[in-house]
Design goal:
It is built from eight helices and ten strands. Helices cover 21% and strands 35% of the residues. It folds into two domains: 69 residues, no CATH class; 162 residues, Lipid/polyisoprenoid-binding, YceI-like (Lipocalin, Beta Barrel), CATH 2.40.128.110. By secondary structure, the chain is an alpha+beta fold. It has a ten-stranded antiparallel β-sheet.
């Protein structure tokens, strides 16, 4: 009788665990009869191991995660980051959060990216202002209106980056000057960027940001409370620069 109790209870618990692991409703074992009423168990059967694989262990297909979901799609993982030019703008009411405006079409029309000759380093980027998108069609139309970019008159913008200087004691970070020709007006702004990749063909990939730019500096003076857009914005860029023109002559010393 003791031998019966010794094997029955562990086997019942093990079977319950196997059923739960397979996603099946666990059925509790029948209560053990009073010792005085239970017949003596066949000791050979009591010692025999449970050979039902479906109950003894979780289904292999359920135990192992699907290969398609266990790791990200290799094709997706291999997609490199894309270049971008964008503006980050706050609503007049800051509680409404930020809006990202992406310029989907732009091209590098001139570049000299020899970082060993900073006196000649230069890049010129042409931006299709009409390609701006904010994720909402009506808002895109407003951004293109005379309140802001007035794209009927000013469909293109250019950014010229030059006068590079390495930031002291920090690898691959440079200060520079960006001349932004936008909305029919030019303005020079200080920028800083980082070289995040140097390619075997001599191209470089840079990332940079300029904060707290005043849209009024480019003639976009609509009052924030009227157009529900803050007076300042941030620009962010990621660009791949390859030598597309011969290096320009060195700039004269100031």
């Amino acid at each position: 009788m003791k031998l019966f109790a010794k094997y029955l209870v562990p086997l019942a618990a093990f079977a319950l665990m196997g059923g739960a692991a397979c996603g099946k409703k666990a059925v509790p074992p029948a209560p053990v009869a009073d010792a005085a009423m239970a017949p003596e168990a066949d000791t050979a059967k009591a010692a025999e191991p449970d050979t039902a694989p479906a109950m003894a262990a979780p289904d292999a297909a359920l135990a192992a995660p699907d290969a398609a979901t266990a790791a990200p799609d290799a094709a997706m993982a291999a997609v490199p980051p894309v270049d971008y030019i964008r503006a980050i703008v706050n609503h007049h009411d800051a509680a409404k959060g930020l809006v990202t405006a992406d310029f989907k079409t732009f091209k590098v029309i001139e570049a000299n990216v020899d970082l060993t000759k900073l006196e000649t380093a230069k890049a010129v980027i042409e931006v299709d202002v009409l390609s701006i998108t904010t994720g909402i069609d009506d808002r895109d139309k407003h951004v293109k209106s005379p309140d802001f970019l007035d794209t009927d008159k000013f469909a293109k913008a250019t950014v010229t980056v030059d006068r590079l200087k390495p930031v002291a004691n920090v690898a691959d970070i440079y200060d520079a000057t960006a001349t932004v020709d936008l909305h029919g007006m030019k303005k020079e702004i200080p920028i800083q960027f980082k070289v995040v990749e140097k390619k075997a063909d001599g191209a470089i990939v840079i990332e940079g940001e300029a904060k707290d730019l005043q849209r009024a500096e480019w003639g976009m003076t609509a009052a924030p409370e009227k157009v529900n857009v803050a007076a300042t914005f941030t620009t962010q860029v990621r660009l791949t620069l390859t030598n597309v023109t011969p290096a320009p002559a060195p700039m004269p010393a100031p």
